[in-house]
Amino acid sequence: MRYPPTLLIIATKKLTAECCGYPISIFFIVVNEFCERFSYYGMRAVLVLYFRYFLLWDDDLATSIYHAFVALCYLTPILGAIIADSWLGKFKTIIYLSIVYAIGQVTMAISTIHDITDANRDGTPDNFTFHIALSMLGLILIALGTGGIKPCVAAFGGDQFQEHQSRQLNTFFSVFYLCINAGSLLSTLITPVLRVVFIAGSGMYVKTDPEGNIMWSVCKCIGFAIKNRFRHRSSSYPKREHWMDWANEKYDKLLIAQIKMVLKVLFLYIPLPMFWTLFDQKGSRWTLQATTMSGDFGAFILQPDQMQTVNPILILTLVPIMDRLIFPLIQKCGLNFSPLKRMTVGMLFAAMAFVSAALVQIEIDKTLPNFPSSSESQLKVVNTYSTTLNVTISPNEHLLIESFGVQLHTSKHTYSTISYVKSKPREGKNAIRRDFVLRHGEQWCEFSRKFGFGASYTFLIPSTVFSDDCESITEVEDMKPNSVHMALQIPQYFLITTGEVMFSVTGLQFSYSQAPKNMKSVLQAGWLCTNAVGNIIVLIVAELGKLPKQWAEYLLFASLLVAVSIIFSIMAYFYTYIDPAEIEAQVRKEQGLEPEEMEKETLEMEEKDEDQKNEQGVKQTKI
Ligand SMILES: CC(C)C[C@H](NC(=O)[C@@H](N)Cc1ccccc1)C(=O)O
């Protein structure tokens, strides 16, 4: 049989060992993902605290750099996808970038050792520039590692499945997502595990070779189509069905068909960053909201940042429920709950989560103290004298100061204050958290009291304090404890996580199923980029400032997402689901090329020989 003098790509999948209908190699991939997310989320969880308390950055800078880092982690997938699909292949890309990742984690760890520059041993680094530079280098390497391997791992997992395993392929993405969340959840509890599991499965993987510099060919082909279209802009030239068809003169029909498939999906992704903009505020705005709430659950006390673990916990329960119960039930009711419909509903759930956050915020606002505005000032005077005193604070204003103090707000005056609290204590902590012991030389006494969350107190300590065993200490409550319970945030976490399962797990599967074979990682990278853009939007919003009322900002975000989901549902309505393999076969047929399956059969004999000689390669390229 003669083959046209065109580049023929012949894919032959290796017979893989199976367990319950799944390729065994999948086990190594999901365990690898678990460990990777474990390491990533473990580091991310303490990153803001590192910026804040080690590098001594202020809140705004720490938050901005944090979101910039997260955005970078979801931008680098493009680089990983290019390396994998054009050069090294997914397997090698994962291995090499994991090494970069590990170097990044080590660099980051070294940057936290203050002894390196603490020559005078006072517990503070002497050279902050060194620590900042080292940690930034570490973070860039980590972003390169984690982001670079991310589109490859999901696509590599998908590659392990044969055609008859399409049901298992869908379940794989759910299990993959479960592992992400199990890893992120456990990372807060246990120290990172070495990522050697992935290499252990090496012999079992279906490893597809990269097919030349595919990204470069794609860019050149798109560039040519645009140029050619522009050259033929006069109406005398007949119109073509698709603007990419203007590349027909120079480029292979198959490549053009593949680019059309990818562009169609990428176009659909345009509104998606809005979902992530809301989703990623869990880590910032919602955690700040939790700082003004009470985390006293009786048996244990929950810190505001720990509230975020509700998300992975819910994922672990919701993914199986959705997969095994809700989606099959919807299907049984005869409803067509297609992937894009699921994603739209997911967005609506996220919008509802923000409505719920707004309602909680309204409740919290009712309990917050009134702080002076920019045109006011706050004066606090504590009267330790035994009787009421009359204090004149301006020619026309008199104040009666009760014994042990009073707090007041006045307009347009600045007074010197004894104690001045201008915001709720940070992270829901009290100014003083536990019982305290007073010491003076040999004398001491212990003061015991239950302090409320987010409360602030002033203690008046007379000189007689040691003789009466702290009895004479008088307490003034500057700020009432937080009274709205953190459990009220659970509905918003439930709604956003339900939205995430519908949106994110489906998006992952959709990106794999709609991508041509040689661009699976590229489309995974495109999907992850929607997250990066979402984080950049959070950054911009944080910098531009907020609405005066936090609940109004939550409602604004919810309305924006509803508007975006309407746009997305219209776009989705016009999207036709494709089977990339079928389209590719069709184009091949039109070009007079052999369909892949036939090629496979014809060449099976030839390959048997070669297979034995070659190391356990999977895909061969023949010219
Ligand atoms: C963009 C990715 C698909 C995000 C994915 N994230 C999750 O699955 C989160 N539910 C994990 C999480 C855990 C703890 C706190 C917040 C988020 C991923 O990491 O791949």
TrEMBL record:
A GO MF label: symporter activity
GO cellular component: apical plasma membrane
Subcellular location per the Swiss-Prot or TrEMBL entry: Apical cell membrane; Cell membrane; Membrane
Keywords: Cell membrane, Glycoprotein, Membrane, Peptide transport, Protein transport, Symport, Transmembrane, Transmembrane helix, Transport
Biased composition (Basic and acidic residues): 600-616
Region (Disordered): 589-623
Family annotation (InterPro entries): MFS_trans_sf, POT_fam, PTR2_symporter_CS
Source organism superkingdom: Eukaryota
Membrane topology note: Multi-pass membrane protein
Protein name: Solute carrier family 15 member 1
Organism whose genome encodes this protein: Cyprinus carpio
Gene that this polypeptide is encoded by: slc15a1a
